[in-house]
Amino acid sequence: MRWGSWNFDERQLTLTHATENYEIDLEEIHSSADILDWIFQILGKEWGDTITIYNLLVAFEEILNPQANYCSFGQDKSVDGGALAKKFIEKHRKN
């Protein structure tokens, strides 16, 4: 799957930026702080423009569903990002 320049690698459970060869390992995202850290890391890159950040947010939303799984009702939760990525794969294989 692809969101703008972000590609989802189902085998590696990563999001990779196509032109910058920058990789986010979804198996290492266990908290809302981890998600926020990635957002601001990318924002700090020269290539981290508005569209790139937007597409990353959409990818996170579709794969990890942060509102439900990481920070619902303002409460930080610990979740296995790799397990969520695998659920995402299974859901899309059925469709």
Tags for this model:
single chain; 95 residues; alpha+beta; four-stranded antiparallel beta sheet; 4 strands; 47% helix
Secondary-structure map with pairings?
Elements: E1 2-3, E2 6-9, E3 14-17, E4 22-25, H1 32-43, H2 50-64, H3 66-69, H4 81-94
Antiparallel strand pairs: 1-2, 2-3, 3-4
Q: How do the SSEs run, as a string of H and E?
A: EEEEHHHH
Number of strands: 4
Largest sheet data: 4 strands, antiparallel
The CA-CA distance between the termini, in Å, is 13 Å
What are the low-pLDDT stretches, counting only 5+ consecutive residues below 50? none
Summarize the structure.
The model has no long low-confidence stretch (mean pLDDT 94). The protein has a four-stranded antiparallel β-sheet with strand order 1-2-3-4. By secondary structure, it is of the alpha+beta class.
